[in-house]
Amino acid sequence: MTLATWTAVDSYFNDLLLPEDPVLTAAARRSEEAGLPAHQVALNQGKLLELLVRIRGARTVLEIGTLGGYSTICLARGLPADGRLITLEANADYARVATENLANADLAPRVEVRVGNALTTLPSLAEEGLAPFDLVFIDADKPSNPRYLEWTLRLTAPGSVIVGDNVVRGGAVADARDTDPRVRGVRKFTEMVSAESGLSATAVQTVGDKGHDGFLLALVTD
Ligand code: DHB
Ligand code: MG
């Protein structure tokens, strides 16, 4: 199996299941034009996020790592009209692009983009009494994943859903000797999920036009 096959399979399913989406296409284009890294979720993975929000019946969503707001749009689409999404972004330029993309998606009233290092903004969410969140999407700098999980556990409640993006890293996650801080971050994150008795979790590898990666899905059970 090669990237060409994975891309062809993505195209087959996306052509049938995911009709033209001018809002997401424009969001990706605006992000690219602004020079953001092309790290947004794939189209089909974005739809998975929307469906998870809906399946959970989530009314409050937290995203750690906004980038250009592509996954933010997907998550927010799954919310009811009175739902709320807070998304945290360290880079003010990225946050500006995301704010434009959310306005173009007519989702700005449902979404708050908070600029600043998430390790600073996460404590303020707790202090402001905004928890618990029904779903948390962790998709920021991978070395900080262990800290993001600690905060996520404080900001969720039984029944909350946690999704961690990019836990496979082209397969490197399986190599205990890998010294890349991003790989170490996702390994430590996974070990912490494993050790947490109040979480029921799985991880799924993905291939497609974004290559080989995967996500971790956890349910807060108690
Ligand atoms: C990287 C980060 C992401 O969130 C992603 O979706 C893909 C790659 C990275 O840091 O390499
Ligand atoms: Mg990601």
Automatic annotation (TrEMBL):
PROSITE patterns: SAM_OMT_I
Record key words, sorted: Methyltransferase, S-adenosyl-L-methionine, Transferase
Metal-binding as UniProt keyword: no
The organism's place on the tree of life at top rank: Bacteria
Pfam families in alphabetical order: Methyltransf_3 (PF01596)
Transmembrane segments: none
Protein name: Putative O-methyltransferase YrrM
